[in-house]
Amino acid sequence: MTPNIGFHHSPAARAKIAAARKGRKHTPETRAKISALKSGRKNPCWDKSPSLETRAKISAALQGRRCSSEVRAKISASKCGPKHPMWGKHHTPEAKAGISAARKGRKHSQEARAKISIARRGSGNGHWLGGISRLPYAWTFNDELKEEVRRRDGYKCQLCGVPQAECKKKLPVHHIDYSKGNSDPVNLVTLCHSCHARTNENRKQWMALFHYKTLEDLLKSLGE
């Protein structure tokens, strides 16, 4: 059992350690010894993905350790702006080739890709602008919702009955009240491309027809 798991220095101890190390630099001889000592060693995270055993050890060693808000703010500040050593710098062609070769063949697992995808959705994406990219449609009017409506309607047009299998594309999902911000499934219906184009005219007539059909389907389901 590792005795230091979850161990934290007190603020006073950390201040003493920081003060004692402040201004200290390794001599060229010491740096050369450290470099020679580490030369030839393989970093498990560089040449290949860490083994499950290594991951478990790393996870156990880091368990319980949390940076304070002040420390996170300092780290963020140190990595931003001209003070950061990599600010405005670019890797040399040789360095880029080395990084590319080291990463070649490495692939994220399905679980990792799913986590990255979730983390980069919505406000987690650097290009997020508050959901205005889908305007005038509601943010909830997404591929998952449209597929659910198609499944509910049996993957066929609710006017002419043509199945999606006979179309080259997925069937459109129409807003019954023509309000693109209303993504309630009750307000959505599956149509083929031809019928969807027809609903652009005489909107009041189509609204009345779809509302009647929705009520009729509801009464039929209650009768069953």
Architecture overview:
The protein is mainly α. The chain has a domain at 143-223. The protein has helices at residues 11-21, 28-38, 44-47, 52-62, 69-78, 93-103, 110-119, 143-152, 193-198, 203-223; strands at 173-175, 188-190. The radius of gyration is 30 Å and the shape is elongated. 7% of the residues are buried.
Counting DSSP E segments of at least 2 residues, the number of strands comes to 2
Unreliable spans are none
Largest sheet: 2 strands, antiparallel
Please work out how many helical segments DSSP would assign: 10
Helix content: 40-55%
Key structural traits:
224 residues, mainly alpha, 10 helices, 3% strand
Give a summary of the structure in a few sentences.
By secondary structure, the chain is an all-alpha fold.
Sequence-ordered SSE layout with sheet pairings:
Layout: H1 11-21, H2 28-38, H3 44-47, H4 52-62, H5 69-78, H6 93-103, H7 110-119, H8 143-152, E1 173-175, E2 188-190, H9 193-198, H10 203-223
Antiparallel strand pairs: 1-2
